[in-house]
Structure to design on (597 residues):
């Protein structure tokens, strides 16, 4: 359940999974000069598919464009370099050496059997009850000794055991190879051009490396809305940050290692600059620019963490992938991104239908597909105006007023209200970007809940209904906060208590932004009235976007380290510090995985 659609967050302009996304647009059916005979549902869909230029498979429509970087295969890859990078990336993805305290791995929040997410509303990150416990039931534990827990700015502030320290739902990695602009909710790491099909390789990566965290400044924030001084990025040569023609997905690689609640934990704190004995030699540090009170910069952290892999155990893997054994931050990031780009999962019933097999969909799914593709002017829901193409997203940012829960992103509305989440504006600092989030892909959305940037929607139906009438959904959300049912439901489903202190207030800000856009006549999501059966049809259609492999543990096992992997044997699971993911009952999520006992 955990990420794709759930990440539905969308909005400045329209968006929505379904709900008459934008004010207009959409596809039209063919017409005849003479009164046509009543078309069958298959004929209507055929016309809509043709009008939208759909191929049924994003590998063909995006990966097949001229100049597009090759999308590697998880098994049977013939290019020896890509194959070696996939295998290296798989090991890096599962090693706890990616986190400072060697506690969590990338897979902790993005496991194959959990929709390449974690099925949690908000991920736990570091300080979990068990390094090997993934998904629902994973909670944070109190740290430190004595009567009170140790306070670890900026994410441990109230001492509630289990309260998630991360701000947003874990995005799914399904289809990661198809993103051209950014792979994150707010575009923290983005491509300068975002050219369709090129995965960012034709332009530079823009990321707030080494820039200070948000601080409330009533002049700048209220009048200008400035958060990051993007001009300051020029002071750091691009070559010091990223390699040329680098995949935008690779630009995200080692960033979680510098985020305290994600993978950094208590590492790189004040007074430790250049003196971390376990990871020497450490590069020189620049005082005053690191986060969480430390003196390390993001670049320092990336270099130090990458240096961990300059070891005899990892040398064969880097040599096979890059020609020599040197581990650098960009090589680590590129290997992980290459592995993640294998997570295509496009062999769905919908693909089969678009290719001509009219029996691949149920009648309900066909009706849902028509609603999804048809314009509101013709009785449809116009979902495809935002969830467009074979990747089912335009990669734009829209305001949808998805309710806000959790700790937020430390965005300051006032000196006393500094835990809001401004969405895209968290990165750009532009007021009109507030509460806008990137449109998620709907590939395999059935497997990626809970939904929304905050993971507040448990089911596909609930997030779909939010698209249909955001105000009604927000009012129901506020009532559930007031009567305590939301807190109980969230804790019952996922385990840890989740902060709802300013949930109503911040959600109200997002709804007000959506309503102001509508009042100004901007292109944005509009309310739409659908029957219960139509909502059901839409949900059924979205289930038709699921590749059967995404539900099959034996099939998903290809994405975890196995004893049959070509290079395994040169090092052991223990020496590589691979994690062994288990559910709340202590059962391995994939039993055949090579991992520690």
């Amino acid at each position: 359940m955990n990420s794709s659609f759930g990440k539905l967050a969308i909005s400045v302009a329209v968006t929505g999974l379904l709900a008459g996304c934008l004010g207009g647009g959409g596809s039209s059916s063919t017409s005849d000069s003479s009164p046509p005979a009543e078309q069958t549902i298959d004929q209507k869909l055929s016309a809509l598919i043709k009008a939208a230029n759909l191929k049924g498979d994003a590998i063909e429509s995006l990966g097949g464009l001229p100049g597009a970087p090759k999308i590697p295969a998880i098994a049977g890859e013939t290019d020896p370099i890509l194959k070696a990078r996939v295998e290296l990336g798989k090991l890096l993805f599962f090693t706890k050496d990616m986190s400072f305290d060697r506690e969590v791995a990338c897979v902790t929040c993005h496991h194959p059997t959990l929709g390449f997410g974690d099925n949690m509303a908000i991920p736990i990150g570091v300080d979990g009850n068990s390094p090997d416990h993934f998904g629902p039931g994973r909670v944070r534990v109190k740290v430190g000794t004595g009567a009170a827990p140790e306070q670890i700015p900026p994410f441990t502030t109230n001492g509630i055991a289990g309260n998630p320290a991360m701000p947003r739902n874990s995005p799914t990695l399904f289809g990661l190879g198809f993103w051209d602009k950014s792979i994150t909710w707010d575009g923290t790491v983005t491509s300068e051009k975002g050219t369709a099909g090129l995965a960012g390789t034709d332009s530079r990566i823009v990321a707030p490396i080494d820039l200070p965290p948000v601080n409330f400044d009533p002049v700048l924030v209220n009048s200008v809305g400035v958060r990051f001084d993007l001009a300051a990025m020029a002071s750091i040569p691009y070559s010091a940050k990223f390699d040329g023609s680098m995949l935008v997905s690779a630009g995200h690689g080692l960033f979680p290692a510098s985020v305290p609640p994600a993978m950094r934990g208590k590492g790189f704190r004040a007074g430790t600059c250049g003196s971390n004995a376990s990871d020497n030699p450490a590069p020189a540090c620049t005082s005053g620019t690191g986060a969480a009170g430390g003196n390390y910069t993001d670049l320092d952290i990336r270099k130090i963490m990458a240096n961990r892999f300059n070891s005899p155990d990892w040398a064969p893997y880097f040599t096979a992938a890059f020609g020599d054994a040197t581990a650098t931050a960009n090589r680590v990031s590129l290997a992980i991104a290459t592995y993640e780009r294998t997570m295509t999962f496009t062999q769905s019933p919908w693909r089969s239908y678009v290719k001509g097999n009219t029996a691949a969909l149920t009648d309900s799914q066909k009706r849902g597909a028509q609603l999804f593709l048809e314009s509101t002017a013709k009785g449809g829901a116009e979902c495809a105006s935002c969830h467009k193409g074979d990747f089912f997203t335009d990669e734009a940012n829209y305001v949808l007023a998805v309710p806000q829960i959790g700790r937020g992103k430390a965005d300051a509305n006032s000196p006393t209200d500094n835990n809001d989440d401004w969405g895209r504006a968290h990165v750009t600092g532009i007021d009109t970007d507030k509460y806008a989030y990137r449109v998620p892909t709907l590939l395999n959305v059935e497997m990626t809940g809970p939904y929304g940037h905050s993971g507040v929607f448990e089911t596909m139906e609930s997030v779909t209904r939010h698209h249909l009438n955001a105000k009604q959904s927000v009012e129901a959300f506020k009532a559930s906060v007031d009567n305590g049912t939301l807190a109980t439901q969230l804790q019952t489903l996922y385990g840890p208590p989740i902060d709802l202190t300013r949930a109503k207030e911040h959600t109200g800000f997002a709804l007000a932004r959506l309503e102001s856009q509508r009042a100004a006549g901007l292109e944005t999501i509009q309310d739409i009235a659908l029957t219960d059966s139509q909502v059901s049809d839409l949900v059924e259609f979205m289930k038709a976007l699921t590749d059967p492999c995404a539900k099959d543990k034996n099939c998903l096992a290809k994405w975890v380290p196995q004893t049959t992997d070509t290079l395994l044997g040169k090092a052991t699971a223990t020496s590589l510090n691979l994690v062994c993911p288990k559910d709340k009952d202590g059962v391995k999520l994939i039993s055949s995985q090579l991992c520690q006992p």
Observations:
- Residues 1-31, 145-157, 211-234, 274-293 have pLDDT under 50 and may be disordered.
